[in-house]
Amino acid sequence: MASPIQHPQLPLPGYFSKFASFYIRQTGHSTLNILSDVISNDVQWSSHPIGPDSVIHDTAAGPAVGAAALVTSLPKDQLPKELLVSDIVPMMVSAARESLTSSPLPYVECKELDSQALTSVPDNYFTHSINNFSIFTFTNPGDAIQETYRTLRPAGLAIITCWRRFAPMYIVHAAQQKIRPDLPLMPTPSPEFYEEGVLQKVVEEHGFAKDKVTVVEKTFLVTEAEDIAGLTTLMSGDMMAKAREGYTEEQKSQWGESVQQSVKEEIERFGGIRFDAYILFAIK
Ligand SMILES: C[S@@+](CC[C@H](N)C(=O)[O-])C[C@H]1O[C@@H](n2cnc3c(N)ncnc32)[C@H](O)[C@@H]1O
Description:
- The chain is of the alpha/beta class.
- It is built from eleven helices and seven strands.
- Helix 5 links the parallel strand 2 and strand 3.
- It has helices at residues 14-19, 23-26, 30-41, 65-73, 90-99, 141-151, 167-179, 198-205, 225-236, 249-253, 255-270; strands spanning 55-58, 82-87, 108-112, 126-132, 152-165, 213-222, 273-283.
- Helix 3 (30-41) packs across helix 4, helix 7 (167-179) crosses helix 11 (255-270) and helix 9 (225-236) crosses helix 11.
- The chain has a domain at 14-166 and 189-220 and 271-283: 3-Layer(aba) Sandwich (Rossmann fold).
- The radius of gyration is 19 Å and the shape is globular.
- The protein binds S-adenosylmethionine.
């Protein structure tokens, strides 16, 4: 049975449909750059490197972020022979297809699939399964892990990431506090995943053996002016409209400036816009 896609704190699917075409810019390349770093510096040095015999699934892939990370981090002769790019939102899947029209990947399929019910995918199929910064958007994260486990081959590697510090949320909260400190802060989807150990617990309770799970943490600073501009656009625009609920027109008109000031403070504090992430590796 297909699971419901509406997360209580995310205006899905409209949220991601609108977002697809300008996704990469407005994430400041954060999800792409972290995954590329994970592939180059962790996966390729592990006992389960990606190579020409690999068969990979990037689930809840957005506009093919996993595919872009593979192409960025691997030499052409080490690209996987097969890649499935899937997402539940049709516009993400079409954005993925468009972005892959001239990619060097030997064989890619882009499909609309629910990560929590991969009914058309056989058991024991993939050598690697990527789930990059999506788990907190699922209504039943445990089901998605079970499906990852089921569709991985024995000894296959799952790479599952989630935020420890999602910078835009801190910046938006700082901007809210400058204008209307009396109103509630914008809610974060599934905030429990920011806590240490939660991702690991979900993974261990839904198929993977405890001694086959490893978690590392990574910090990523966004410092390029164009990426900072992309993230600032995200935080100033409609995607963060919920942060302005209860505002007068005059207060709404102060939002852009308040975000810019909060971005400036973030950069003064950390030397860039700071993302912290949990990177989990699990072997079937
Ligand atoms: C924060 S984005 C991450 C996208 C991408 N993996 C990345 O690295 O940037 C979350 C993605 O999860 C997708 N999504 C949400 N619920 C889903 C579900 N049940 N099944 C598949 N995709 C889902 C959204 O459409 C969106 O593309």
